[in-house]
Write a structure and sequence with these properties.
mainly alpha; Hypothetical protein af1432; 9 helices
């Protein structure tokens, strides 16, 4: 079994049947995979991107229990140690795990983007959040103009209003 399949299975298991959480992280993963492949990411970067996309909201159940909500700042703080633990024994190298954990801990901080894996994770998560929450087209266009860099990400975001 490859690393991404192992991570996906582990995330489904820890989601304890919460269909919204499972659909959210699998949709972010699917968009991240498509955008990363369109950008021609190197295989290791693509793997880190997909691992972080699957685990980016790993802290949501804990945050809802601990804080009563899953506000982004709690997700980033609580998500890093949870992701590090989950990613152990998945076949990822220590360097890949550290980068994926970093992305989990920064996936709501678009002003700090430092690589294409980070860029694409921000775009994929935003697309899914816009779709799930029904963001107004104008708000999405503003976010796109400010933060989106990939053509495929822009195309996918714009397809929500066609």
């Amino acid at each position: 079994m490859d690393s991404i399949t192992i991570i996906n299975k582990k995330m489904i298991d820890i989601s304890e049947g919460n269909i919204h959480d499972i659909e959210h992280f699998t949709n972010v993963w699917k968009y991240a995979k498509v955008i990363g492949e369109a950008e021609g990411l190197e295989e290791r970067t693509q793997t880190v991107l997909e691992a972080s996309a699957l685990t980016h909201d790993i802290a949501c159940p804990l945050c809802r229990e601990k804080y009563g909500n899953a506000v982004w700042k709690y997700q980033e703080i609580e998500g890093m140690p949870l992701a590090k633990e989950l990613l152990r024994d998945t076949g990822l190298s220590e360097v890949e795990i550290e980068r994926a954990v970093y992305l989990v801990g920064h996936h709501h901080t678009p002003d700090e983007i430092d690589g294409m894996d980070y860029q694409i994770l921000i775009e994929a998560d935003y697309i899914v959040n816009a779709e799930e929450s029904g963001y107004p087209e104008e708000a999405a266009k503003d976010f796109e103009n400010k933060y989106f860099k990939t053509e495929k990400g822009k195309e996918l975001l714009r397809s929500l209003w066609k």
